[in-house]
Amino acid sequence: MKVVIVGGVAGGMSAATRLRRLDESAEIVVLERGAHVSFANCGLPYYVGGVIEEREALLLQTPESLAARFRLDVRVRHEAVEIDPAERTVLVRDLTSGTQLLESYDELVLSTGASAIVPPLPGAERALVLRDVADVDRLADAVGRVRTAVVVGAGFIGVEMAENLTRRGISTTVVERGDQVLGPLDPEMAAPVAAEMRGHGIRLETGVELERIDAESVTLSDQRVVPAELVVMAIGVRPESSLARAAGLDIGSGGGIVVDEQLRTSAPHIYAVGDVVQKRDAVSGQDALVPLANAANRQGRSVADVIAGLPVVDPPAQGTAIVGVFELTAAMTGWSEKRLLAAGRPFRALHAHPMAHAGYYPGARALSIKLLVDPETDEILGAQAVGGDGVDKRIDVLATAMAGGIRASRLLDLELAYAPQFGSAKDPVNMLGYMADNLRTGGLRTAQWHEVYKAVANGAQLVDVRSPSEFAGGSVPGARNIPLDELRARADEIPAGPILAFCQVGQRGNSATRLLTQLGRDAVNLDGGYRTWHAATTG
Length: 539
Hints:
5-stranded antiparallel sheet
C-alpha cells in the first residue's frame, strides 16, 4: 500500500507516524510545500517575544530524523498542484528545481491546513502574518528594528502577538472591528483581559477597522492615524482547500473540505484532516470550522487508523481553547451566550467567582467562571473562565464533562483532587454544580447583569447585601444597602414589589434571596453579583 500525505505539521505528521506504527510495510510519502515539515506552530509568538530563546526548539523533526525513525519519505519544498482522483495521481512540483512529476497513490490524505487572511487593503503587502517558520523568521527580524506595531485582530493569536511584541519593548496597538477583545468570549468575561492588556501599556482600538497601511503608520476607518513600523495581520484563517476544490471534492459553505465520520472526502481513497476540513460542532451538530492543533493531531491519528482498517468515528468539536495574557489566563469550551442568543437556543447562564485554591493558603486569587446550560436537559452547552492559576484545570474538567455527557447539576458529584494549595474542598467546578442544581430544582432564581436596568424599569428594588464598606466602594446605581446579617430584621424597609438582591459574587445574594422568598417577597439574585455587573459595564 502506498499512502501519499499532502501537508505535514500536526495533522499530516500525526497521520504518517501513526500509520507507520500500524503498518511497517506501507510506503508513506509526505509532501510539504514549506521548508519545515514538523514545527511547534503554537510556540511561534513566544519565539517572537523572546520567551522561547532558541529557534531550534520550535523544530520538532526533520526529513532525516523521520526517515531514520519511521522510514518516511518526507519531501520538503514539494507542492501538490493537481489531483486526479480517477487515476489516483498527484502532480507534484519541486519548488527548488521547478521540475514536476506524477506521484501515484493507493490512499491520499490532505492536510493542507489554513492560510492567514490578509484583506486587500492599500499597503497590505507590508503586513506580516504568523503561520509557519518562514513567517516567524520575518517577524523575528523585524522586531529588532521597530519601536511601534499594530496588531490587526484581537482573537487568540492577536492577543498573543500583542503580548509578545510588548515584551520586546515595542509600543503596540491592537485594532479590532468588534466591540471587545477575544470575540469568542462573552463581554463580561473578556473585560478582565482587556484591562490586563491596557495595564501593560497595550492600546486597544475596538469598534474600528483598518482602512490603509502606510509607510510607518496605519489609518483607521474613523480616519485616525496610528504609528506602525510593523503591522501584523491576525484576523483569522481560511481553509487551504483550493487543491481539493480543483479536484472536484465537496467543499462546505465555510470553505472547508467536507468529510464523513471516518474523515473520507467525497472522492474514493481521498481523506482530509486538520484545519482544512469542516468539523461537526458538538452543540449544534452542524458543520463548523475549528482550526485547533489538538483536533488536527487527533484527526491525523484517526485517519491512519481508518486506512489501517481500525474502527474510528471522528468526535464532534467543542472548540476548547486557552490563551495566556501576561498574568491572566482566559479559556473556553463550547458555545458562548452571544452565540446561543444568535441561534435562538434557550439556556441558563451561571457566573461564579471562587478562589483558585483555598483562601487561607497563601497566593489565592479569584477565578471568574461562566457556565451555560440547557434549561430543559441540564446539558452543558459551554463554559468560560478567566483568572490566574487554575483556569486551565477548570476548563479542562468542564470540557471533559461536556464531552462525556455529564449534566451540569451533577458537577457537584465530581471527586476532584484537593489540597489547600491546589483547590478547595468544594472545588469551583463542584460549586457550579451546586448552582446548576439550585436552578434546576427551582431553589434559586437569578437575573443576569444585562437584565438589571430592565428589572428596575419594571419596578424592582435593588438591594445590595454587602457590608457598608463594600457598598461605599461602589455599587449598582440606585441600590439600597442592607447587609445580609441585618436583612432579617430590616426586610420591612424594602418597599413592596419585586426585589433584585446582590452581593459581590452571588453567594450572599443567594442567601438573601432565599431569606426574602421565605418571608413572602418576590426576590431574585443577581447572578455573579456586583463583580460580574461591574466587569461587563465598565470593560
